[in-house]
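can u do me a favor
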């Protein structure tokens, strides 16, 4: 399961079937795609632009689509421009919903007609949802086993506003703070050392540290860009519509389906 798929599953409200903070999800999904493509050695961020290093497939339909889009750009795009997406393209959130629907990871139901049509999502694959929870729990609980990918997902969960929904209440304050604090996992170098010979330990350590610090730096940069984009979007939304915002999600490429913005049900996840 990719980080983007995990992010979407975590965003689905378990009771009302809406995507929480829906207006923030497309750029957040594009951010985790960028992190995954970087981890796979396909792209890198250099001086604020996304540079393609290797255009070969990674074996995931949506990641490969994004990689192809990046590799065919006449000039490496700026991070903030790419996170917004192209107006003519189907929304990234809609693409993920459609993909997980086809794979029967989620069930998609449409209610109402015309502009009143809404989308209700039910998570069917609870093992995948538990896997996504385990990733961010490792960070929220301060576990040493948290990987670079776990840390990156936690950082994006925080910046798109899901942390306050997933870890509610004053007793979860420390968990929310840990999600907001992207740190390099201490165990990365050790995990690499365990599979190499003693002669390669120094090189393995250097590679592991470079990978960790690079992804940490990228995630921090992406969260800063996302925060700025969210502020601009919120200002635009309030200016043009009096603060009421609708996001259109196209999961069939033949029509737009309205989903409510934000978390309207107040559900939460219980952990021991």
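np, heres the sequence
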């Amino acid at each position: 399961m990719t980080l983007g798929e995990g992010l979407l599953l975590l965003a689905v409200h378990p009771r009302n079937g809406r995507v929480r903070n829906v207006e923030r999800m497309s750029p957040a999904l594009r951010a985790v795609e960028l992190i995954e493509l970087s981890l796979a050695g396909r792209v890198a961020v250099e001086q604020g632009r996304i540079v393609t290093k290797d255009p070969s497939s990674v074996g995931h339909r949506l990641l490969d689509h994004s990689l192809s889009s990046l590799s065919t750009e006449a000039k490496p795009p700026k991070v903030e421009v790419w996170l917004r997406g192209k107006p003519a393209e189907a929304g990234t959130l809609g693409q993920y919903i459609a993909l997980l629907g086809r794979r029967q990871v989620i069930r998609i139901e449409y209610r109402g007609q015309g502009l009143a049509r809404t989308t209700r999502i039910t998570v069917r694959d609870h093992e995948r949802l538990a896997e996504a929870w385990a990733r961010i729990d490792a960070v929220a609980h301060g576990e040493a086993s948290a990987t670079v990918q776990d840390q990156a997902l936690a950082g994006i969960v925080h910046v798109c506003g899901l942390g306050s929904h997933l870890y509610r209440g004053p007793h979860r304050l420390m968990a929310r703070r840990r999600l907001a604090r992207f740190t390099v996992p201490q165990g990365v170098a050790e995990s690499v050392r365990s599979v190499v010979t003693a002669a390669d330990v120094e090189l393995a350590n250097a590679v592991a540290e470079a990978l960790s610090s690079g992804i940490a730096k990228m995630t921090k940069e992406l969260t800063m860009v996302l925060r700025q984009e969210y502020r601009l979007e919120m200002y635009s939304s309030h200016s043009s519509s009096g603060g009421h915002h609708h996001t259109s999600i196209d999961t069939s490429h033949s029509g737009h389906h309205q989903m409510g913005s934000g978390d309207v049900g107040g559900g939460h996840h219980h952990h021991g």
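DSSP finds eleven helices and six strands in the chain. hope that helps!!
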